[in-house]
Amino acid sequence: xxxxxxxxxxxxFGLALGGLVLGLAAASPRAARAQASVAKLKIATIGAGRxxxxxxxxxxxxGHPVMxxxxxxxxxxxxxxxxxxxxxxxxxxxAVAFGDVVVIAVxxxxxxxxxxxxxxQLATKQLVFDVSNPIPRRDGEDFVKKINDxxxxxxxxxxxxxxxxxxxxxxxxxxxxxAKAAHRTGEPLGVPIxxxxxxxxxxxSALIKELGFEPVLIGxxxxxxxxxxxxxLGGEHTPxxxxxxxxxLS
Length: 250
Description:
Elements: H1 2-27, H2 29-35, E1 43-46, H3 50-61, E2 66-69, H4 77-83, E3 87-90, H5 92-98, E4 101-104, H6 111-122, E5 127-130, H7 136-139, H8 141-149, H9 153-160, E6 166-168, H10 175-181, E7 190-195, H11 198-210, E8 214-219, H12 239-247
Parallel strand pairs: 1-2, 1-4, 2-3, 4-5, 5-6, 7-8
Antiparallel strand pairs: 6-7
C-alpha cells in the first residue's frame, strides 16, 4: 500500500530527526548543567555582604529559595530585589531555621559567636558552606596567628561547629569574580573545596556545578587553610591548574 509506506517513511525520518535534535541538545553545555542540577533546596546566608550577597543571588537565580540574613534585615531590600522573586531577608535566627543549606560568609571573628548561638541547629543541616576567612587587616594579626597556629581556618571551623557538615568553598575567589564567572562560556572556573564528610562534599559539588563552576576537592578540613587569598590556591584558576597546585601542597 503506497500511502502506508509513505507514512511509515515520514514517521521514521521524523523520529530519526527528533532523536538527532535531542542528542545535540543533550550534548550542549546548557543541557549538561541542567542534568547536573540538584533538587531545589532552601539556602540561607549568614552574612549578606559582597560574598554572601553574590552567592545567595546566584542560588536564587537558579531557582533555590534563598533567605539573606543580617542583624538589620530591613537594610537588605535592594539585595533582595536584585536577587529576584526567590529571595527574601530575615534575621540570622530566621535564616538558620529556614535553610536546608547554610552559607556562612562573615568576618572570621564572628564565627565563634555564631557557633555558640546556632551550632546545635547548624549540625542538623545537610550542608554548611564555610566561606569565611581570617584576614589580618580586618581581624587583626594576633587573631589570625591564633587561628593559623591551631591548624588554620578549615580545622578551626570544624572545631567550632562540631557535628556540622562543613565544606569550605568560594573562599579564594572575590565576589566580583563569582558573578562574572558563573556559567561562563568555555572552560568553567575551578572552585577549590575541602571537607571531611563525603555526602556534604557531594552535595556541595553538585550545587557548585549548578552555578556553572567546577569544584575541585583539595582534601580534608586540614587543607582548608589554603583556601584563603594570598595562598597558591587564591585567585582564579582553571580546574587543571587547581589540581596541579594542590598536588604540591603539604
